[in-house]
Amino acid sequence: MKLVLTVVVLVGALASTCSGYQVKPKNYSATVEQLQHEYARAEKEFEREFRIWKHTGVKTPRFREMLDSWKIPREERGMELEDLPIQREGQICLLCRSVVGQLMQQRQNGATRDDLFGTAYELCTTLQIQEPDVCYGVIEINIDFFIYIFDNRPSLGSDSVCAVIFQSSACILSDPEFLDWSVNVDASGRPVTESKHFPSARGPNDIKIVQISDLHYDPKYQMGYNAVCNRPACCRNDQGIPEDPSEQAGRWGDYRDCDSPWDAIEDVIDHVAEFHPDAAYIYHTGDMIDHGVWETSIGHNIGAMNRIYSKLIRTFPDTPVLNILGNHEAHPTNVFAPTINVRPDFSMDWLYRFSADLWGHWLPQSTRHTIQQGGFYTYLIRPGLRVVALNNQDCYTFNWWILWRPDYLANQMQWLHDVLLVAERNNEKVHILAHIPYASSGSTFRICQREFRRILERFHDTISAQFHGHTHRDEFNVFYSRESPEHAINVAWNGGSTTAFSDINPNYIVYYVDPETYQVTDFESYIFNLTDANLTPDRRPDWFKLYSFAEEFDMHNLSPAEADRMVKRLGTPAGRDELYRYWQFKVKLGDPSLEAGCDENCLLNHLCQIVVSEMGDDVKCDELRETFFD
Questions:
Q1: DSSP states of 253-300
Q2: Model pLDDT for residues 238-251, shown as the tens digit of each residue
Q3: At what angle do helices 349-359 and 298-315 cross, to 10 degrees?
Q4: How many CA atoms lie within 13 Å of 370's alpha carbon, on the beta-carbon side?
Q5: 550 vs 192, 520, 546, 589, CA distance in Å?
Q6: Which end of the chain is less packed: N or C, by CB atoms within 10 Å?
Q7: How many Cα neighbours within 13 Å face the side chain of 460?
Q8: CB 1 within 8 A of CB 328
Q9: What does the pLDDT read at residue 482?
Q10: pLDDT above 80: residue 109
């Protein structure tokens, strides 16, 4: 679900989905602290030049120089902040604070919607954040939310806005209103004294669960159309046919910034049904909508989702499909308003009621209330195994409503805690489904990460596994105790994506789950090679099993203890070949990714991404760095 680099919140900058991790230099914190004074000086200079421009209508030579130096290179538009060179974190934060600060000041001085729109549009195009039509569309869709938040939270500063959106060590968040809320956690749990392990290996009686994620259906996808359009979504029927055949969209999808055609959606669903008829459950972890974020609408989103759900109902009438929402299902993209908002036109009722109706084919009536309330639910899918399906887009750093009432994020997390407490008392095990990985420091708000880890540690005996999507990568995260970080307590698995967006092959995952502990004992990833599929457009893609995780990495099972041992082994020179294979599987042997390669620093970043689960807590990464180059 890679969007475009979020550079300036209000001017419609967009966010990537392949949220990576970069190992920080040992002196990074001290350097950032030293640079804060320089950032403050630059903000003051920008403020002076901006006011001259607004007062006279003329950009001074110095202002033009500043804007030219801050232009976003085209190759960075599709990158997550964490995927940029580490020194760019501070530069992007400075740019955000400077621009957003002046837009907020304009509003306080009486600027109208049209005034703000004009300023935002000119800056978006001048800074080359996106093409003009994309700038126009994203600003038009989002600007009313920002005006409402700015008007109703006059104490909100640009430093807090940018520290939430550009979550990094270089963008410091100090506002206690964002930091000081918490979940009430029951104190009677068993303390963590060792890494969580279990004896079971994969066996013939294991429960088979298929995960499908990030379909990203684009109704406008058209074979032969422009795959290099310099927009968040290409290969669309209104973007023309390029003269160069190499720039034309393929039959079954495209490695470039293109979503999935309908035929590819049908094919993966049909393939799962044909080749895995013994699957007990389907976990469908969100993001059905395309990346055309500058022109979404409620009608467009409902139409696309309805077509996919209808296909799932026809294909799996008797196999429970457990659905959750992704950030793209909302309109505007990413924006999930709390139920306590005061404007009906901001309400998410349309999405929650639609979801309750369609999901009701597989779910009991008892789930309907919380789905209509906030898009989440819990369901005892068999005696002893409970699914908790979250809508954790409220914690997405690009959900603007965090800026309005950050404490509202506690509501769903408190519900999660309370459901887990009841499950514990009933001797149930729990699978958590959430679209955005809680460990993603580039996507999940840091305080949500902190509170989720508190919940996870309290219920480490009850939570058997987590299942996520969003990143489009076949990857996983190991969670460690906050109090005793030497102990691994949980593993979160990522289903990758059935879309090839971007530079990867489509995939789905088959899990094998122990019927007593409900722990994952193994999983298999299935893919097809997009290059080969597009060479034979009249034939269905040739899906094949890419690998078995337990077999490939010589693991008895996939317990947190086993995963921790694997990570430590990969974090040594002797484990370099294994780590490279992990990276190859992570990108699903995507031809462009393999061509680009991954050097040792790249591999270390990918390794650290497995073990870092809270923004600012790099303890486990630091341990791996000490052994990596021995």
A1: --SSSB-B-HHHHHHHHHHHHHH-TT-SEEEE-S--B-S-TTS--HHH
A2: 999 999 999 999 99
A3: 10
A4: 18
A5: 25, 10, 13, 19
A6: C
A7: 29
A8: yes
A9: 94
A10: yes
Predicted confidence at residue 70, as pLDDT, reads 86
Give the tokens for residue 182: 């918490």
Mean pLDDT of 74-94: 73
609 in Cβ contact with 618 (< 8 Å): no
Given pLDDT bands bounded at 50, 70 and 90, which one contains residue 82? low
Cis peptide bond N-terminal to 188, omega within 30: no
Whole-number Å distance between alpha carbons of 628 and 579: 11
Q: Which two tokens stand for residue 393?
A: 């887009």
Structure tokens at 177: 């209103």
Name the DSSP letter for residue 488. E
Beta carbons of 146 and 332 less than 8 angstroms apart: no
Residues 6+ apart with CB under 8 A from 366: none
d(CA 151, CA 268): 46
For 430, the 3-state DSSP assignment is strand
Label the pairing between strands 321-323 and 281-284. parallel
Helix (H) or strand (E) holding 593: helix 591-596
Amino acid (one-letter) located at 517: T
Distance CA 505, CA 503 (A): 7
What's the pTM?
0.95
